[in-house]
Amino acid sequence: MNSKTMSKDLFGDKRMGFFIYLFVEAVMFATLFATYLIYTPAPQGPHPSEVFEVKTVVLASIFLLSSSGTLMIAEKGMDRRNIKMILTGLLITFTFGAIFMYFEVHEFHTFVTEGHTISTNNFLSSFYVLVGLHASHVLFGLFWMIVLLIQRKLLPYNLFKEKHKIFNYYWHFVDIIWVGILIIVYIPYLI
Amino acid sequence: MQFYLFGELIVLPTDVIAAWVSVIIGAPLALYWFTKKRYWPVVWDFATSTNHRKIGMLYIIFALLFFFRAGIDALFIRLQLVTAENEFWVFQGDKYNEVFTTHGTMMIFFVAMPLLIGLMNVAVPLQIGANDLAFPFLNAIGFYLFLTGGMIFFAAFFFNAAPNAGWTAYAPLSTYEFTSGPNNNYYIFGLQVSGLGTIFAAINMIVTILRLRAPGLKLTRMPLFPWASLITSFLILVAFPVLAIALLLLQFDRFYGATFFLGEMGHPVYWQHLFWIFGHPEVYILALPAFGIFSDIISSFSRKNVFGYTSMVIALALIGLLGFMVWAHHMFTVGLGPFANTFFAITTMMIAVPTGIKVFNWLFTMRRGVIRLQTPMLFALGFIPTFVMGGVTGVMLASAAADMQYHDTYFVVAHFHYVIIGSTVLGAFAGLYYWYPKMTGKVLDDKLGKWHFWLFLIGFHLTFFPQHLAGLNGMPRRVYDYTWEDGVFVYNFISTIGAFLMGASMLFVLWNIYKTHRTKEENVGPDPWDGRTLEWSVPSPVPEHPFEKMPVIDRRDALWWAKQEERSLPIEDHPRTSPIAVRTVQPLVLSAALTILSFGFIYGWVWMQILGGAASLGFFLLRAFNDERTEAYRKEEQDDE
């Protein structure tokens, strides 16, 4: 076996497999987008424009979208084998992701206290399922980043690099879904 | 039977009691037998392996187990319907709903799917010269997800809560307002868990086929079973996520007061759309791999190459593509309007074209071939007329106007049993006999195999042909009773006789396996059928990493031509890296965690949901710090320095 090509071969397999997995996730989100479009606005109960709050959406978006940028710092650091850059990039990304989660929880909490619960009408049901599934992906990503920080010390560098790259794809994907949510869920009712 | 337990009235039907009694008696006997025969090391070896052959065999073993279970359900259905105004045991009313729901769901998700995925697992890597699937660990995870989902669904009956809204779980019947028991929660979680496993299996299959083929084995030289597996896997990628989301929405309706599918704001028809956007591709997910198996078998047993190879591949792809454009033909009667009905009627009829191409190519493959009528080939020959009959009734059903009469009658029941048993089940049996030597090293007895084939095929036609007539005479599906005046007694009576013939034929499979392993000491050689494709160049049963010497492929059916020219295939000196195998109990951990999580949701116990959720996340941690590639990567880095 030619050992030099091993990690290249295996990473190629893994990357293709993970991209296919992301495609599966994209189909799931597409189905939820369709659900949201079908049920919004609902014939009764609150209209989206009465419920959404510009400030929260804008702040949440700023932090989540820029976290894709800050993750680039870690990616650069990986290529240069610069541990400091990797750590800085990951930590900033983690903080931004956590701030995004804060706004999400804040938003959900505000809605519920205003009486806009999941069973109020179908617009809110599909909103909660779609945005909630996205938020749980962000939460899983935060959990994953902590694992990555520990893995850095334990794993051989190439394997860590591989896992880091897979995480990067995941995080960028979650960001793209957020862009979709902005375009389909929020913007039509905020402008 | 009724009794009080802790002050609560417990009502247990006698069939549930009978099931518990048989488990309480059967389980210790089985445990004793395993211990006496010293089988536990073998069981442990299979349970912790990530080898594709072993996981494939596990898929098949459990699929056969579920096949017997769902087959007994079918016999109960037939016994209840054997005469007019009949009352067999407890299977009337809601019990009957449970029994047909379990039969349908189990046959589709826990019999047909795993039988095919199991055969893909065994055969596809060998046919393309891969030492294992691309992700051996993920393969084990996929299997355990299927098993967990299957067992959750299987367990429902023992807690007297079998799902009862049909295998399609149409809303609003399947929502909390109309079926409030835990019954349909079992449906949601059984399918959700096993569906995830199916998605992983598909990802694994695609990467394996696209990246791990032997040098020189271009896609255009690949045998048709891997081709069918590849296209099927793409269908799974689109169909199963839609099912996952449909189940998620149903779960929110049932548990959290959402009203996606019922009430003033909800749309019951939206469930039907989502279900059939999954459900119709699912039909082709079941059929295409069987087409692949038949193509390989017919070619091998006729000693001829596949006629019209290119058109076979194109036909597979076309069927797959059209499969996504026909879902609303299940919904002709909901009132989508003449335009939609016409569109879906035409796309449905168009599927007959690529299917017809395939049928003629199979016939032309046999033409002037040297045909050997061994068991796998018999199943292939039985498949062609059976499937064509199912296809013809399919075209009848596709005309929307006529479908108003056929809809929800036994005509439909007859149709889909003709296509699914005709293709998937006969295909799985053919594949089982064909690749059995690759799995175990033994060839199944041909004489008993022929008994199995003839009894099954005659029983099958006896069961389902009269159902066409019952349906045309107006007998609706999913009812447990009919009157003498309905004039469908004769059809039902014949149908029941046929069902028992099919049941009897399955006993021959068990007897065959027992006899084969008892009497045949020696393993057969690598090539018992004088085969054409690469799997027949490696020993039977297949060792782990069989392609240590990686063959180079220079044409289609390269092994066959090498045999004709009495040479061996050239060897590649620097093949790509093979996937890394590992012995692991981690999938068992995930299985336990998801069982806890699912039962937490099924019975609405929040503490159990939290426990199961935490355990599932814990599994990710376990996996993150136990990667079988760590050692290999460390070694590679040391070599580089």
TrEMBL record, chain A:
Membrane spanning residue stretches: 20-39, 51-73, 85-103, 123-149, 169-189
Pfam families registered for this protein in UniProt: COX3
Keywords from the UniProt entry: Cell membrane, Membrane, Transmembrane, Transmembrane helix
Subcellular compartments: Cell membrane
Predominant location: membrane
InterPro entries: Cyt_c/ubiquinol_Oxase_su3, Cyt_c_oxidase-like_su3, Cyt_c_oxidase_su3-like_sf, Cyt_c_oxidase_su3_a-hlx
Annotated family: Belongs to the cytochrome c oxidase subunit 3 family.
Protein name: Cytochrome aa3 quinol oxidase subunit III
UniProtKB/TrEMBL annotation, chain B:
Topology term for the membrane: Multi-pass membrane protein
Transmembrane segments: 16-35, 56-79, 99-124, 136-159, 186-212, 224-250, 270-294, 306-327, 339-364, 376-402, 414-436, 448-469, 489-511, 580-599
Record flagged with keyword Metal-binding: yes
Top-level taxonomic group: Bacteria
Domain Cytochrome oxidase subunit I profile per the UniProt entry, residue ranges: 38-554
Main location (coarse class): membrane
InterPro entries hit by this protein: Cyt_c_oxase-like_su1_dom (IPR023616), Cyt_c_oxase-like_su1_sf (IPR036927), Cyt_C_Oxase_1 (IPR000883), Cyt_c_Oxase_su1_BS (IPR023615)
Record keywords, A-Z: Electron transport, Heme, Iron, Membrane, Metal-binding, Respiratory chain, Transmembrane, Transmembrane helix, Transport
The keyword Phosphoprotein appears for this protein: no
Signal peptide: none
Location within or outside the cell: Membrane
Entry's family note: Belongs to the heme-copper respiratory oxidase family.
PANTHER family: CYTOCHROME C OXIDASE SUBUNIT 1 (PTHR10422:SF44)
Name recorded for this polypeptide: Cytochrome ubiquinol oxidase subunit I
Organism this protein belongs to: Thalassobacillus devorans
Gene from which this protein is expressed: qoxB
